[in-house]
Design brief:
Blueprint: H1 8-37, H2 41-54, H3 58-77, H4 86-117, H5 123-157
Helix pairs in contact: 1-3, 1-4, 1-5, 2-5, 3-4, 4-5
Length: 158
């Protein structure tokens, strides 16, 4: 008896993790950032600094870090799977890793670090915030789209 290299449950877990990240990114694009944009710059920047600190917690860490690891394993194993849908698994896994983890580390985290170092009450802090709103939000829209498509691909594989 041959054991399949991709257990269906692993694909379901990856799809759920990807969906959670897509939903989180969507919430920021649809509500959080537009809401913060409506505040005075020093208030919006300070609120985002607090959000960026609060999100670094174990629950977020498991989903944010665990889903890409699972996706990497699935992307490597899927081509050797006897199951149909291996192409969807690879596509979804790669889209998730790039959309959630890579873009976050390359684009959003450096912007978060720059904002964190800024004094929200200073003119320089207001300039950092204005730049942050445009750039961080644009990259977040990309993360939202890629993770949404990744979730759909992984769901199709199930």
């Amino acid at each position: 008896m041959m054991i399949d290299s991709v257990p269906p449950g692993a694909t379901v877990v990856a799809a759920v993790g990807s969906g959670l990240m897509a939903g989180l990114f969507f919430a920021f694009s649809a509500a959080v950032m537009p809401g913060l944009r409506r505040l005075r710059p020093e208030v919006g920047a300070a609120a985002m600094q607090a959000i960026n600190r609060a999100i670094l917690n174990p629950v977020f860490g498991v989903v944010f870090g665990g889903t890409p690891l699972l996706c990497l394993l699935l992307a490597v194993a899927a081509p050797f799977s006897a199951r149909t849908g291996a192409g969807w698994i690879v596509a979804g896994a790669v889209l998730h890793v790039v959309g959630s983890f890579v873009l976050t580390m390359v684009a959003n985290v450096p912007l978060n670090n720059r904002l964190d170092a800024a004094d929200p009450d200073s003119p320089a802090g207001a300039a950092v915030w204005a730049d942050y709103l445009v750039r961080w939000t644009a990259w977040n829209h990309v993360r939202t789209a890629l993770c949404t498509v990744a979730t759909a691909a992984l769901a199709l594989a199930v």
